[in-house]
Design goal:
The protein is built from 12 helices and 14 strands. The longest helix has 26 residues. Bound molecules: 4'-deoxy-4'-aminopyridoxal-5'-phosphate. Keywords: Aminotransferase, DNA-binding, Pyridoxal phosphate, Transferase.
């Protein structure tokens, strides 16, 4: 678990044995290494461990019987469509419904602008596939979503991080980074950003900065990829307007039902200017022919027949209670010198440890005390983040969150006196 990645020399299944196929992989396979989060899953899923590591939505809160019934009705009434191949762009009716969902974030788009994908993770893969040649630069917040970093590595992108503070990406740093890259003759293809309730930092880009970031990118000819799976999971007031709501020509928006409904359906989407959308459809067809008609129609039926806005509201209340449990426990229990973000939505808190502590070194001790987190280094492509960690509050019940924070605070306290 704490081993350094060894770039394909070993596989998980083979344990310590040398990978016999190592000389035959394509160069891009070198970048495909298990994320720190993946390695953590086995440990964190032990029942005695309080996992503040994963980002699993609390699907237990869904009306499972109702979902079962609507799936049965779907097969009875539209089985021959649900069980057939579909179009590469995705079910037209679902694309209309997706536009209705996006209107909540101020986005005005039509079904022909949307491509349905296998979660937003596949949208990330496709967008990277159509834009990135080996060595091209992708800008990403520092820290950034681990799954996106994995995709960028798989396509041999060079990731350059732009710092954030508690108001999100810092526009001045973005300008400085772009200037430095231009001076070095490096080609920047896009800015990848999670502007709302960011994973892993839990911060949200302010309105003023949204305008600045869009303006800077437009002027520099850098596309913005807005990844927004948490946008509707805010704890106070109305949803933020998406970046895409302000700039239809230079923003590709990625959305997902994974957090507002359930990740098991694997339904996400990309909303893109038409030339990019056309390439995405071709890339989609080459990857999987078409998305599963079955799960697309199931999600469509859920949206049609269920009070989905109410369900999202009740998810928000549930996650707000857990966020509060975590923040209150951190305030009560963490030793001086620890700092953390205060998310207004989403799943994650980002905590920075006192000077000199290393979160990766701390992890085995934390696991021995039955609590897990994700070390900060997993969220950077350049090895930064050693003093930070991501703490999730989405899955454990509030009492377990408090207990997890108590255990973690004990481990950090012990480390400080050593
Ligand atoms: N982007 C971000 C920021 C995420 O946190 C996740 C899931 N953890 C994804 C994309 C991928 O989600 P999915 O493929 O389930 O839509």
């Amino acid at each position: 678990m704490t081993q350094e990645p060894d770039h394909g020399r070993r596989t998980a299944a083979q344990g310590s044995r040398i990978d016999a196929y190592i000389d035959r992989y394509a160069a891009r396979a070198t970048g495909m290494v298990a994320s720190e989060i993946r390695a953590l899953f086995a440990v964190a899923s032990r029942p005695e461990v309080v996992s503040l590591a994963g980002g699993m939505p609390y699907v237990t809160a869904l009306p499972l019987d109702t979902v079962g019934e609507l799936v049965a009705d779907l097969v009875a009434q539209r089985g021959t469509v649900a069980l057939q191949y579909g179009s590469g762009q995705g079910d037209p009716h679902l694309r209309e419904q997706i536009c209705e969902v996006m209107r909540l974030e101020g986005i005005d788009a039509g079904p022909d602008d949307v491509v349905v994908t296998v979660g937003s993770q596949q949208a990330l893969d496709l967008i990277t596939r159509i834009f990135i040649d080996p060595g091209d630069v992708v800008l990403a917040e520092g820290p950034s979503y681990v799954g996106a970093l994995g995709t960028f590595a798989a396509y041999q992108a060079s990731v350059v991080h732009v710092p954030m503070d508690d108001q999100g990406l810092i526009p001045e740093s973005l300008t400085e980074t772009l200037t430095a890259l231009a001076a070095a003759g490096r080609r920047v293809k896009f800015l990848y950003t999670v502007p709302t309730f960011q994973n892993p930092a839990g911060v949200t880009l302010t309105l003023e900065r949204r305008r600045q970031v869009l303006e800077i990118c437009r002027r520099a000819g850098v596309l913005v990829v807005e990844d927004n799976p948490y946008g509707l999971l805010g704890f106070d007031g109305e949803p933020m307007r998406a970046l895409r709501a302000e700039d239809a020509d230079n923003v590709v928006y990625l959305g997902s039902f994974s957090k507002t409904l359930a990740p098991g359906f694997r339904v996400g989407w990309a909303l893109a200017p038409h030339p990019i959308k056309d390439k995405l459809v071709l890339a989609m067809e080459s990857a999987v022919l078409s998305h599963s008609s079955f799960t697309q129609l199931a999600v469509g039926r859920y949206l049609e027949t269920q009070p989905w806005r109410e369900q999202i509201k009740s998810f928000c209340e549930l996650y707000r209670e857990r966020r509060d449990a975590q923040l209150n426990a951190l305030t009560a229990l963490m030793p001086p010198g620890c700092h953390w973000t205060r998310p207004a939505g989403g799943f994650f808190v980002w905590m920075t440890l006192p000077e000199g502590l290393d979160s990766k070194a701390l992890l085995p001790r934390a696991v021995a005390e039955r609590v897990a987190f994700v070390p900060g280094t997993g969220f950077y492509a350049d090895g930064s983040g050693a003093t930070a960690m991501r703490l999730s509050y989405c899955y454990p019940e509030p009492d377990r969150i408090r207990e997890g924070v108590r255990r973690l605070a004990g481990v950090i306290q012990q480390e400080l006196v050593m």
